[in-house]
Design a protein that fits this description.
0% strand, mainly alpha, 6 helices
């Protein structure tokens, strides 16, 4: 809205580059900037079904990444089932970390419990696979304790 002289290259008021004499009245368009990561994620998620998004949260050892993406995305912000699966998937991963880094080292040092940590790791891995199958079938399965925590986490998000 400021007046500029024909010789001015930039507007003194807002700093916008002015068209050179003989150019169109429009200032040159900026080169398209790279999309930010959030826009790329939203674009990727725009075609994903809620069932597929929920299933990704249970991929053993790496599903936590999908869980965080689903919880952070605008696409599934209002989808209670996807958010439930994302939280439950995160809680399974936390359980895995506990078994791997706390429980297993303790049981290795106790004579009669050497294999207990490995057995518990197999149980957690089996839980991930079980949830992959159930979620892929479209079943909303609440795991004992972890499902209750996930349900509570979803209800606190409102």
């Amino acid at each position: 809205g400021s007046q500029v002289e024909p010789a001015d290259v930039f507007c003194a008021g807002c700093g916008t580059r002015q068209a050179a004499p003989g150019d169109s009245a429009q200032p040159p368009k900026a080169k398209p900037a790279q999309q930010d990561a959030g826009a790329k994620i939203d674009e990727f998620l725009s075609t994903m079904t809620p069932q597929k998004a929920s299933t990704l949260c249970y991929i053993p050892l790496v599903g936590w990444v999908a869980s965080i993406v689903m919880l952070a995305s605008n696409r599934f912000r209002e989808d209670r089932n996807v958010r439930f699966h994302a939280f439950q998937g995160l809680y399974i991963f936390v359980l895995w970390l506990f078994v791997e880094h706390v429980f297993s080292p303790i049981t290795r040092s106790v004579g009669g419990m050497r294999n207990m940590g490995q057995m518990l790791q197999l149980v957690v891995m089996g839980t991930w696979v079980f949830m992959l199958v159930k979620t892929n079938q479209g079943v909303l399965f609440h795991l004992p304790i972890l499902g209750e925590l996930a349900e509570r986490s979803v209800s606190e998000q409102k």
